[in-house]
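thought: fold this chain, then report.
action: predict
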Amino acid sequence: MAKTTGSLRSLRHRNFRLFFAANALSNIGSWAQRIAQDWLVLQLTNSSKELGIVTGLQFLPSLLLSMYGGRLADRFNKRRLLFITTTGTGLTATALGILVVTHTVQIWHVYILAFILGIFGAIDGPIRFAFTPELVGKDDLANAVSLNSANFHGGRLIGPALSGLLIAWFGTGPSFFFNGATYIFVVLALLRMREGEMHIDHKPSLEAKARDGLRYVLARRDIMAVMLTVFFAGTFGLNFQIFSAMMAQRVFGKGPAEFGSLGTFIAVGSFGAAVTFAKLDRRRGPRFIGAMAAIFGMVVLLQALMPSYLAYGLILPFLGFSALTTMISSNSYIQQTTDPSIRGRVMGVYLMVFMGGTPFASPLIGWFMDHYGVRQTIAGCGVITSAAALVIAFLFRNDRARPESISVSDVLQDYEGFKG
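observation:
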């Protein structure tokens, strides 16, 4: 086979091709379920507060378990771990579908299954991030991260709109079944991978400790700046589903099909950002990430001011582009500049920071929407995102990136000085 070059060069690796293709279908299913789950909550409760609670429950495990997932990634075979988390996620989606089609679903069922789904996601996330370098090697890592993001948000181009149509025609149940079935292909891809073609530059160690990942981050002030920026952007800015659900239903008086279409509008910008970054090799550092997060917050603010459904939809591609540019840059920077022996644990900290504020912020955002208005709440989230990015950039303005060659032992020794 001829060598693949340019923006698709990571696809020359057979194991990555298998995983990429299976995830393309799975991502469509995941986005379809997100829309169906949000709409199901609104059907059952007609409450933005309840929608925020469900979102919070789904992301609460990220705060509790992401560091543990990162520890597992550095201790055990990542492919085997992903087989377990993938199977569990598929079964959870199917269980919710069964409850819906049998007309027995209640809001407490959604609470429990969203939390279980979050458990598998919290453990799966850092393992999946740390698994990507083993599929493509260091030279193609940045390209693979961008392609994975393009894949994820390519699913967003199809999944929300597909789910909106399925809900309008058949109810929410089929979206859950569809998502559950897509994980079969991910399992098959994992089973067909060749261990001999893995790019493993550090063997798993049973001595890996979760707290060392946190100590590593605290000693790397450049990574700290990135993670703090991501925390505020993720907690207050990346609430697309709640924002769009409330704007579609309450502000513009639209139904599930129009709500699903808003996800596709966002995906246009997100997919464009991912494709753009797949063509670029130069790493984007903390300053660029902070600037993009500030721009992202400004677009969230503008989103709240849109006077009509059409105007709201037209600004969403810019929202998706600025958000994903921030997240791809952050993800790629941290993975590329972290020692392979501790990468899983560092990505566990990253996901804990990225998702950790959502369990508390989502119910609070829902409460603010119920009491102070949808537009006002979204605007406030945008202001917080931008302001936080600018403050963090100022506080860490003199910090520089650490060289990739620095060892874990050196950084952990630096941590003692940093702490002192």
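thought: worth noting. The chain has one domain: 9-198+208-419.
final: tokens above.
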